[in-house]
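hey can u check if this looks right to u? its 101 residues, i copy pasted from the old doc so theres a chance i mangled smth
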Amino acid sequence: MQATQTTEKPVADPEVSDRPRAETDPGWLVVCWNDPVNYMDYVTHVFQKVFGWSRQKAEYHMLQVHHQGRSVLTRESLEKAEHYVHQLQSYNLHATLERAE
């Protein structure tokens, strides 16, 4: 009896990713919350300083914080998100970290 050779490639399981976990991780959200202490111009300034944003983008997020109570500022890896939260907190802004879904 002669063995047959198959040249078919195995079909990849669509539920299994071959990318490293860090690439498939949904990441972390940096959230800034409204507070009764900081002035709107100050919050805008801090966003520009920490993220390097234009005044327009910083004002957009500041207004979200002011009117909606919070704004998701960025989505990053855990290490980078923690860094941003600590920077914002060093300027006395109420910032937290949330797991992205």
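The first strand starts at residue 28 and ends at 33.
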